[in-house]
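Propose amino acids for all 439 sites.
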């Protein structure tokens, strides 16, 4: 095809170590109070607020800890020490301040670690009567994800115990049904794919880390949870008639023919399917790996914008813009608003996730369509998201359908360091191995 995996690997290495990490290490660490700054403008030029979303704090810790685990030999010792010191500052901040008296994680903290809520204009305030600070169980998951990775990188028993205790608390909340899922609330009668995909990834990573700490019973319990989540995704949310993963189905496990029951999130599908490929690799399930790869293919074929390129944020399961009935009780629901306002946005994260998923699939299965899609996604991604201002470095994360930068909030009002760095961290060694085989 006239393509070079050696050049591909060099591109990802340069983006990760030359542009993205320097931005975050220079501008993202709060050395005074601990934790991280992530509320930057879309172009990265301006810090808009010092709020600390625990969602992004946990992700930032994960990034630093994974760098320590997998990339410390690629940098000077001083750089690795800075990663460690920054990770420790984030871990200490989260262990001191993230959990409320209830045991749930606060969604937003101020710079010093006090829980806050935000007014529509972005100003922080205290909770009023009847309000709580625990707005999303996904924040708890990302605190677990980050601290577990740090535990593995630093051999920290304290961080491992904190992560495991919080995960057990999350599982109890899931069983009770008493939790929120902001910024993507789920209406009564529905359940969401996102809850199972994050449970799959968190449980399988915890299983591996439990094995590192010699806890075989915990490892077995986590593997059982991962297996349950994988089956839920592939057997219930992945519909054989549509060959795609629905983002919401009914609590009776049946599809619902409404706007919210018909929509898909191509980026979520692709991200989840590399979670699934990791799980298939850990369990030796070749058929599951192949099924996950085929689901990536379906998401790309269904979702790719044939006019402008790239993957929209949301679509109908047919591949058209979101459509379907909106029952009267859901007319003002936040997810109905988001589907209308944001469906056509091109975001940085689905494309970076797709690069890794395609590399992972191609290295193992070497099917021509995987390589064809890899180059298509790579070309679009590198032409669209890297910041033209190399003095900033970090990618522009939100663009409209035609690729124009757009300053808006599509999930949280943050510039999250997570998806690009994780995808490049994972993709780089695969690209390097392919370069060794194919040049």
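Proposal:
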């Amino acid at each position: 095809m006239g393509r070079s995996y050696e050049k591909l690997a060099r591109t990802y290495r340069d983006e990760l170590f030359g542009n993205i990490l320097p931005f975050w290490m220079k501008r993202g660490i709060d050395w005074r109070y601990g934790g991280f700054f992530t509320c930057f403008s879309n172009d990265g030029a301006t810090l808009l607020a010092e709020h600390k979303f625990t969602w992004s704090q946990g992700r930032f810790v994960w990034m630093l800890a994974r760098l320590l685990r997998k990339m410390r030999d690629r940098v000077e010792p001083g750089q690795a020490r800075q990663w460690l010191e920054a990770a420790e500052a984030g871990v200490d901040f989260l262990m001191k301040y993230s959990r409320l008296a209830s045991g749930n994680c606060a969604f937003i903290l101020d710079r010093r670690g006090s829980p806050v809520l935000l007014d529509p204009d972005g100003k922080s305030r205290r909770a009023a009567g009847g309000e709580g600070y625990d707005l999303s169980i996904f924040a708890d998951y990302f605190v677990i994800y980050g601290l577990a990775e740090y535990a593995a990188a630093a051999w920290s028993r304290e961080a491992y115990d904190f992560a495991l205790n919080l995960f057990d608390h999350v599982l109890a909340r899931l069983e009770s049904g008493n939790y929120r899922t902001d910024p993507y609330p789920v209406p009564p009668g529905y359940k969401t794919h996102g809850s199972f995909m994050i449970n799959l990834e968190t449980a399988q990573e915890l299983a591996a880390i439990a094995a590192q700490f010699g806890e075989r019973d915990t490892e077995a319990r986590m593997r059982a949870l991962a297996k349950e989540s994988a089956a839920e995704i592939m057997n219930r949310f992945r519909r054989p008639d549509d060959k795609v993963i629905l983002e919401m189905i009914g609590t009776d496990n049946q599809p619902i023919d409404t706007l919210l029951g018909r929509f898909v999130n191509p980026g979520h599908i692709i991200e989840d399917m590399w979670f699934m490929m990791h799980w298939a690799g850990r369990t030796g399930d070749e058929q599951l790996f192949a099924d996950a790869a085929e689901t990536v293919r379906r998401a790309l074929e269904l979702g790719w914008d044939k006019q402008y390129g790239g993957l929209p944020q949301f679509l109908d399961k047919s591949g058209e813009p979101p459509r379907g009935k909106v029952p009267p009780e859901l007319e003002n629901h936040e997810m109905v608003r988001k589907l209308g306002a944001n469906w056509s946005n091109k975001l940085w994260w689905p494309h970076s996730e797709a690069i890794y998923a395609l590399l992972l699939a191609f290295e193992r299965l070497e099917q021509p369509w995987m390589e064809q899609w890899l180059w298509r996604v790579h070309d679009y991604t590198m032409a669209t998201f890297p910041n033209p201002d190399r003095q900033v470095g970090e990618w522009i994360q939100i663009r409209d359908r035609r690729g124009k930068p757009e300053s808006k909030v599509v999930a949280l009002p943050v510039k999250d360091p997570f998806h690009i760095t994780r995808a490049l961290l994972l993709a780089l060694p695969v690209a390097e191995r392919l370069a060794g085989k194919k040049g």
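The chain is about 55% helix and 5% strand. The CA atoms of residues 144 and 165 lie 9 Å apart.
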